[in-house]
Amino acid sequence: MAEPILEVRDLVKHYPLTRGILFKKQIGAVKAVDGVSFGLARGETLGIVGESGCGKSTVARMLVNLERPTAGAISYKGENITRLSGRALKAVRRNIQMVFQDPYTSLNPRMTVGDIIGEPFEIHPEVAPKGDRRRKVQELLDVVGLNPEYVNRYPHQFSGGQRQRIGIARGLALRPEVIVADEPVSALDVSVQAQVVNLLERLQDEFDLSYVFIAHDLSIVRHISDRVGVMYLGRVVETGTDAEIYDHPTHPYTQALLSAVPVPDPQARAHRERIILTGDVPSPANPPSGCRFRTRCWKARQRCADEVPLLAVPQAFPEGPAAHPSACHFAAEKHVVPAEGELPPPPPPPGPLHGGQ
User: Fold this and answer.
1) Residues 216, 250: one domain?
2) For position 124, which CATH number holds?
3) Would I find Glycoprotein among this entry's keywords (predicted)?
4) Residue 5: closest CA among 45, 46, 39
5) 4 part of a folded domain
6) Is residue 314 part of a domain?
7) Other CB atoms closer than 10 Å to residue 75's CB: what's the count?
8) In 29, 217, 295, 331, which residue has its Cα 20 to 30 A from 205's Cα atom?
9) Taking Cα atoms as reference points, which of 80, 79, 74, 75 lies closest to residue 58?
């Protein structure tokens, strides 16, 4: 990978659990993020997938400094930005923008669309002269597929998908270098999802943008991402290119996720192996020892409870597409959906009827 524009090392976010009213005492912590590391190159898209509650959105908020990490470092162009404040933080935030997950709460209901999208220009007046801001707002509305004449409308006059496109326009206003997209298309119709994803790809090529793209839809993540990181209970359990993760998964959790993806080919769907996980996701306030996935894993052994698996290339796969980092003591390939050449031949057609039957 090229020199990273954004680098995360051992990122940790623990929320304290307290008891008492007047004299509060900490009795534990919710380990929302517990040791996440990755790099993001210029012009690259890193997709992050995982179940709800695994810490994806918490990572996103820390990347834009909406949450202060408990430990670890986030470096932007080699500078640690986790403890910045004032003008230094303001300058960094111009280059790292976010598209929020919920379009209903991320837009101020008392502001018009023109004021919402134009607000970044008020904070960073050097980006657009005051007399030119309305035109720029209308251009942004046109870019995301909305009528430029909507500048005087309010958020309640739009559908959920239209509100999310307004949020995307706001994120693009300052022409940032990095965009953190937290479920940016989950509220959109399928046809609009394709339009927005194609728009993000076009803007990435045009403005040399880098994306951290968080989503539940594995097909969209594969379509837009250059690399993919799979998270489970606050940690990254597998990372690699889209082909490595989707075609050659080695971690049991990744294999279980992929087995749940709908397959449009009826023949392939009939012969694939469906992995059904038992039990619930453990509480992040009291995660299991060792491997956090071991309580739901069919490969679990005593070693999984005693040792924390490192996110590293498995020794069994020193080369090839399976040679990508996986946090499992017993990492191995598993073809969840058989390839086209692996499908058994179709049954022969029934023979002619005999005996007048």
Assistant:
1) no
2) 3.40.50.300
3) no
4) 39
5) no
6) yes
7) 16
8) 217
9) 74
Q: Taken in order 155, 156, 160, 161, is the CA torsion positive or negative?
A: negative
**In this structure, are 244 and 301 located in the same domain?**
yes
Residue at 9: amino acid letter: R
Which of 201, 225, 249 represents a domain boundary (last residue)? 225
In a domain, 242, yes or no: yes
- Give me the amino acid identity at 215: A
In this prediction, the residues of the chain whose per-residue pLDDT falls under 50 are 339-357
pLDDT of res. 1: 53
How many domains would you assign to the chain?
2
Same domain, 196 and 114: yes
Structure tokens at 314: 């498995």
Report angle CA 113, 85, 67 to the nearest 5 degrees.
70
Tokens in use for 240? 């690699």
Same domain, 205 and 141: yes
Q: What is the DSSP letter of 121?
A: H
Residues 6+ apart with CB under 8 A from 237: 230, 231, 251, 253, 254, 293, 311, 326, 327, 328
What does the pLDDT read at residue 341? 42
Q: What is the pLDDT of residue 344?
A: 43
Structural domain of 308:
237-339
Rounded to whole angstroms, the Cα distance separating 122 from 29 reads 39
3-state SS class at 279: coil
Residue pair 144/63 in contact by the 8 Å Cβ criterion: no
Q: What is the pLDDT of residue 284?
A: 92
- From residue 325, give the alpha-carbon distance in Å to each of 81, 185, 332, 335: 27, 28, 12, 18
Q: What is the pLDDT of residue 336?
A: 60
Residues 146-170 as b or e (16 or more Cβ within 10 Å = b): beeebbebbbeebeebbbbbbbbbb
User: Side-chain half-sphere of 171: how many Cα atoms within 13 Å?
Assistant: 29
Q: Which of 98, 104, 216, 117 has its CA nearest to residue 159?
A: 104
